[in-house]
Design brief:
Elements: E1 5-10, H1 16-25, E2 29-32, H2 34-42, E3 48-49, H3 50-54, H4 69-76, H5 82-90, E4 98-102, H6 106-110, H7 117-122, H8 127-137, E5 143-145, H9 151-161, H10 166-194, E6 208-213, E7 223-227, E8 240-243, H11 249-262, E9 269-274, E10 277-283, H12 287-297, E11 305-309, H13 315-322, E12 326-331, H14 336-342, E13 349-352, E14 364-368, E15 371-375, H15 397-410, E16 418-422, E17 425-430, H16 436-447, E18 455-458, H17 466-474, E19 478-481, H18 488-498, E20 501-504
Parallel strand pairs: 1-2, 1-4, 2-3, 4-5, 11-12, 12-13, 18-19, 19-20
Antiparallel strand pairs: 6-7, 8-13, 9-10, 9-11, 14-15, 16-17, 16-18
Helix pairs in contact: 4-8, 8-10, 12-13, 13-14, 16-17, 17-18
Length: 512
C-alpha cells in the first residue's frame, strides 16, 4: 500500500516540528521546501525536497517551486476516478494526502513603518494559496491545514480512525478558503490604496474575530466582534482592557461613539454617552474639571454611561468618577493612583486607546439589508467652515466658545439634532427627532434655566423660524447652523427681532 504523503511549507512555524514528527511516526512521508525543510531536518525529521518530487529546481529566488503538475496533479486527482488514476500512473504522480501551509507574512510586512512597495510585493504568496485552494477543493481526499490550532485535531483523528474524518476535512477546507480570501482581501486593499482608488467596482474587506459576545443588542440576538487587520489603533477593537468584565455589543457601540466625539477636542475634554448619543460633554483646564462639567451637564443620564477622556485619568478625576455608577471609562492612560481607586469596582471596564492614532482616516461603513453603504468620515471641522454672520448682532467671545463646543458635538448626535452649550459644557441635547423644533424643545427642556445666555447648534438648516422662536423664548443668545434654506430670511429676521447672534457654517452634519 502506498504511504501517505504530506507537503509542509509554513511561514508560521509554531508547533510544526512536533506535528511533522508525529505524522512521520504515523507513516506519513514529508515533502517540504526552503526554510521549513531546513527546520525539520535540523530536528532529525526525514524530509523529501520539493525538487526531488518534481525533478525541477526551485527557480526565480524561490518564486517557483511548487507550481508543477507533479504537485498539483497529486493534489487534485479524484481518487475513485479510474481515468484520473490511470493518468497518475502514466505520469508517475504519487498522491499527496495532506497540505500543511500558511502564507508569506504580507500583513506583517505592510504593517512595518519602513516597508517599501517592493518588499510588499515580494511578500505576496503565490504557490501557498494555490496548493491550499487545490487541496481544499479536493477535500474529499486531501486534508488542508492552514492553522496550527488544528494540528492536534488532525493527529487525534489519525490516531483514532486512521484518517481525518470527512466532516473535519470539509471544515478545514472552509477555513482554508476563508484564510486565502482574507489574505487576498488585504493585498487588494493595499494595492487599491496605492493607486488612489476610493470606491472601486468591488469592495473587498476582511475582519478577524476578536471575541464572541454573550448576545447582541438584545438577549435573544447572537453576536460577535470582529477587528479589521491593520485598522485604526484609535478604536475599541484595538483598545487594551485593564479591568472589568467583558464588553457587550451595546458597550462597544457606545464606546465607539464616545471616542469619535472626544477626538474632536484638543483641550482637556470628557464625553459621556448613552445609547450612542452624548448626554454630557465638558471641557476645562484639567481633565478633572472637564469630567466635572460632563457630569454636571446631565447628572441623571450619565448613570450607567460610557465615559471617554482625552487625557490620562488622574486620582482627582478617578475619585469623582468613583462616586457614580459607570459602565466604561476610556482614556489614553490611567495613573497608578487612579487605577487603585477605580479597580475597587469589580465590573467597571477600564480601557486604554492610542490617541496618537486618532488622525488616521478610515471609510465609514454601514450594513443594510443585502448591501453596504460606504462613505468618508465626517471630519469637517470649524476651521473648514465657510463662516458668515447674517444677523445684526455678532457673537461675543464667550458665545463663540460655546458655539464651537455645541457645533463639535452636534455632528455626533442622531438627526434631527440640537445641542445647547454654556460655560464649557453641553446643557441640553435633543436627538433623533422627526422635526427640528421638536429636537430644540427637548434640549431646552433639559437645560431649563441654564438656557439663559446659552448657545444652540443645529446639525442642519431651519426650514422655518419656529426653532429660533423657541430658542429666543428660552433665553438663548447665539445660534450656529448651516444655513441654506429657502426661508433663511425668516430665521434671520426672527433672530434680529430677539437680538440673537446667528452664525452660518455652510455645511450640514446629518447623522442617521
Amino acid at each position: 500500500m502506498t504511504r501517505k504523503r504530506a507537503i509542509i511549507s509554513v511561514s508560521n512555524k509554531k508547533g510544526i516540528v512536533s506535528f511533522a514528527r508525529q505524522l512521520t511516526e504515523l507513516g506519513v512521508e514529508i515533502i517540504s521546501t526552503g526554510g521549513t525543510k531546513k527546520v525539520l531536518e535540523e530536528h532529525g525529521i526525514p524530509v523529501i525536497g520539493i525538487s526531488d518530487v518534481t525533478g525541477f529546481p526551485e527557480i526565480l529566488d524561490g518564486r517557483v517551486k511548487t507550481l508543477h503538475p507533479l504537485i498539483h496533479g497529486a493534489l487534485l486527482a479524484v481518487r475513485d476516478d479510474e481515468k484520473h488514476q490511470q493518468q497518475l500512473a502514466e505520469h508517475r504522480i504519487i498522491p499527496i494526502d495532506f497540505v500543511v501551509v500558511n502564507l508569506y507574512p504580507f500583513q506583517e510586512t505592510i504593517a512595518k513603518d519602513d516597508v517599501t512597495f517592493a518588499d510588499a510585493i515580494e511578500n505576496i504568496d503565490i504557490g501557498g494559496p494555490t496548493m491550499l485552494r487545490a487541496a481544499a477543493k479536493n477535500h474529499a481526499y486531501v486534508t488542508a491545514i492552514v492553522d496550527p490550532a488544528d494540528y492536534d485535531l488532525v493527529l487525534q483523528q489519525l490516531k483514532e480512525h486512521g484518517s481525518v474524518l470527512e466532516e473535519t476535512r470539509r471544515k478545514l477546507a472552509a477555513k482554508v478558503f476563508r484564510h486565502t480570501a482574507a489574505y487576498d482581501a488585504i493585498i487588494a486593499e493595499y494595492l487599491t490604496k496605492t493607486v488612489g482608488e476610493s470606491y472601486p467596482e468591488t469592495w473587498t474587506m476582511t475582519f478577524t474575530k476578536k471575541q464572541d459576545l454573550r448576545y447582541g443588542e438584545n438577549p435573544h440576538q447572537t453576536a460577535a466582534f470582529y477587528e479589521k487587520p491593520l485598522g485604526s489603533r484609535f478604536s475599541i477593537a484595538a483598545a487594551k482592557q485593564l479591568h472589568g468584565k467583558e464588553l457587550s455589543y451595546n458597550n462597544i457601540n457606545d464606546a465607539n461613539a464616545a471616542l469619535q466625539i472626544v477626538k474632536e477636542f484638543s483641550e482637556p475634554a470628557a464625553v459621556a454617552v448613552k445609547h450612542m448619543n452624548p448626554c454630557g460633554v465638558g471641557v476645562g483646564s484639567t481633565i478633572a474639571e472637564a469630567f466635572a462639567k460632563a457630569h454636571k451637564a446631565d447628572p441623571t443620564s450619565i448613570f450607567g454611561g460610557i465615559i471617554a477622556l482625552n487625557r490620562e485619568v488622574d486620582e482627582e478625576t478617578a475619585l469623582k468618577m468613583h462616586e457614580i455608577f459607570l459602565e466604561i471609562i476610556i482614556a489614553p492612560s490611567f495613573s497608578e493612583e487612579a487605577l487603585a481607586v477605580l479597580t475597587k469596582k469589580k465590573n467597571l471596564r477600564l480601557l486604554t486607546v492610542d490617541f496618537g492614532a486618532a488622525k488616521k482616516k478610515e471609510p465609514f461603513v454601514v450594513s443594510v439589508e443585502g448591501g453596504l453603504l460606504v462613505q468618508d468620515q465626517d471630519d469637517y471641522t470649524f476651521e473648514n467652515a465657510n463662516i458668515t454672520i447674517p444677523t445684526t448682532r455678532k457673537p461675543t467671545e464667550k458665545e463663540w466658545e460655546d458655539l464651537k463646543l455645541a457645533w463639535r458635538v452636534v455632528k455626533h448626535v442622531k438627526s434631527n439634532a440640537i445641542v445647547l452649550a454654556k460655560d464649557g459644557m453641553t446643557i441640553g441635547v435633543g436627538a433623533g427627532q422627526m422635526n427640528r423644533v421638536g429636537a430644540a424643545k427637548i434640549a431646552i427642556e433639559q437645560a431649563q434655566d441654564r438656557a439663559q445666555g446659552a448657545a444652540l447648534a443645529s446639525d442642519a438648516f431651519f426650514p422655518m423660524d419656529d426653532t429660533v422662536e423657541a430658542a429666543a423664548k428660552a433665553g438663548i443668545t447665539a445660534i450656529i447652523q448651516p444655513g441654506g434654506s429657502i426661508r433663511d430670511e425668516d430665521s434671520i429676521k426672527k433672530a434680529n427681532e430677539y437680538g440673537i447672534a446667528m452664525v452660518f457654517t455652510g455645511v450640514r452634519h446629518f447623522k442617521h
